[in-house]
Write a structure and sequence with these properties.
Layout lengths: L5 E6 L3 H11 L5 E7 L2 H8 L6 E4 L8 H9 L6 E6 L4 H9 L4 E4 L4 H12 L4 E2 L1 H12 L11 H11 L4 H8 L3 H15 L4 H10 L7
Parallel strand pairs: 1-2, 1-3, 3-4, 4-5, 5-6
């Protein structure tokens, strides 16, 4: 049986941007755009009216900015996955977006294929970041030698760095030349040490506790 298409809502205050995003996404038969919003409040209201899987969200929105929309998504009975698509590459923007529940963070100058890949990744429960954001996350982890990061071993920090960049357990294992089962063991230790039960919460807590966010 063929899986139903991924249902996407676009939230951006520029009509031409939304039209371009719709054209890119709907050129793939496994993705369909089911709604659009040009303000933050409209995005939150639409989320209560339309069933969808992924929200593609700009952070600069009238009425309520993207962070307010992210908070609004948390109140839904079934929270959609959120792909942030923005021009902001600053640490404070990335850290706050991830803390508020963003599943992917893309820069607007990212390649077209990144958007499609991000939508597919988050639906599968994975995270996705533009290449510059991946490097930023890795740098934050590498710089975390004190505070909460001190309870982690060097190898655990290596694993956290790669997982935070959106790599899978298999990709992380290949990068570190270790077994997939070893990566999963390190991930379990990270979750236990930081008191979390999911990968998304692990990265959010790492940001909040200073393992990734130097602020």
């Amino acid at each position: 049986m063929t899986a139903p298409p991924v249902r996407v809502v676009l939230a951006d205050d520029h009509t031409l941007v939304r039209a371009g995003l719709r054209r890119v996404l709907e050129s793939h038969p496994d993705i369909v755009v089911v709604g659009e919003a040009e303000t933050g409040r409209a995005a939150v209201a639409l989320a209560g009216q339309v069933a969808f899987d992924v929200l593609v969200l700009d952070l600069n929105m009238p009425d309520s900015d993207g962070f307010g929309v992210l908070q609004g998504m948390k109140a839904l009975p079934r929270r959609p996955r959120v792909v942030v698509l923005t021009m902001h590459a600053g640490r404070e923007y990335v850290a706050r977006a991830v803390r508020e529940g963003a599943d992917a963070y893309l820069l607007k100058d990212a390649a077209v294929q990144d958007l499609v890949a991000a939508v597919r990744a988050v639906v599968q429960g994975r995270r996705y970041y533009s290449a510059p954001i991946q490097s930023l996350l890795a740098d934050w982890v590498a710089d975390s030698g004190t505070g909460p990061g001190a309870v982690l071993t060097a190898r655990e920090r290596d694993v956290l760095s790669l997982l935070a960049r959106g790599l899978s357990s298999r990709e992380t294992a290949a990068r570190l030349s270790i077994g997939v089962r070893t990566v999963e063991t390190h991930r379990a230790h990270l979750m236990r040490k930081l008191g979390v039960k999911s990968m998304a919460t692990l990265i959010q807590k790492a940001l909040r506790d200073g393992l990734i966010d130097p602020a």
